[in-house]
Amino acid sequence: MNEPFAKVGNICEIKAYAKINLGLDVVGVLPNGYHEVRMIMQTVGIWDLLTFEKIPRGIVITTDSGELPTNEDNLIYRAAALLMERYRISQGVRIHLQKNIPIAAGMAGGSSDAAATLKGVNGLFGLGCSLEELKELGVKIGADVPYCVMGGTALAEGIGEKLTALAPAPRCHLLVAKPDINVSTRYVYEHLDARKSYEHPDIDGMVQAIEEGRLEGILERMGNVLESVTVPAYPIINTLKMRMKELGAAGSMMSGSGPTVFGIFTEEETAERAFVKLKEEKLAKQVFLTGFQN
Ligand code: ATP
Asked: Which atom, in ligand 1's list, is nearest to the CA of 101?
């Protein structure tokens, strides 16, 4: 993936992109309680901006978001500490986070910030770590972090850390809407386990459609098993999915454990009209018009 990275003197800036899942299947539960997944991951054009600056010592986080911790509970802190301890960096770093990605939304915002931090600290202190090394470190912070280090279109298996890069998904227009509700990831997985049986999306078929560059084949196979829990519990998710379809989306689905819903449009004008309409209707707190970022 083409990563914008700018280093001027002792300051560097890096964009942390959000992801959506074009397909999400749960295929088992591991002995340690983690869920075994098969997911099609896709980076989208919504990003946080992180700025890194050397300071004499410590890790200092500032952010324009009033909702996030700035202490060691922030994944940015954990990523910086992990890398700096491993390489025994005696200096410190100040990291400013400009937050645009919806929080607790199923868009891996925190994981992406952590991945960007690994890259930013690596670049700022000239540590010379390869992307592979950063991915290996990233999984200690969260299962989605290795994918966020890599970005683009990918198949994620295991707990999400076993990654296969795929051909860039075909160009399209994307409407992303985060309703004003909070969905607990733990609640979703626990209720899915209790269900025992559910319909599995055709992830292998989607991989093939992506490799063949067929948007139609992707649209036909879009599916997220977690919707079987969230849709009955949070009707707004289905309302948004349906509304996007009425407004011309060729496909719509919930991302990750939700509650963010996205719609795929083939025509730019239709997507723009739908964007304006959805914002007017105030069904969602945050609405974005964007595309895939490969
Ligand atoms: P995923 O798609 O991986 O499930 P998500 O989009 O649902 O992630 P995040 O936005 O990554 O959820 O945040 C989940 C929780 O992590 C939040 O409750 C938040 O307080 C915490 N958190 C810690 N650091 C960050 C960060 N830098 N950005 C966002 N959330 C963070």
From this structure: 10
Sign of CA dihedral 168, 176, 5, 60: negative
Give the residue among 163, 162, 155 at the shortest CA–CA distance from 203: 155
pTM of the model: 0.95
pLDDT tens figures, 93-127:
999 999 999 999 999 999 999 999 999 999 999 99
> Which residues have any ligand 1 atom within 6 Å of their CB?
68, 74-76, 103-111, 113, 144, 185, 256-257
Catalytic residue among 135, 144, 178, 241: 144
Active site residue 15: no
Ligand 1, atom 18, residue with closest C-alpha: 104
Question: Is 19 in the active site?
Answer: yes
What is the assigned CATH class of domain 6-165? alpha beta
Closest CA to 50 of 12, 81, 91, 105: 12
Domain 173-290 - what CATH class? alpha beta
Residue range(s) of every CATH 3.30.70.890 domain in the chain: 173-290
Beta strand pairing status for 251-254 and 223-224? Answer: unpaired
Helix axes 131-138, 109-124, angle to 10 degrees: 130
Determine which residue's CA is closest to atom 8 belonging to ligand 1.
108
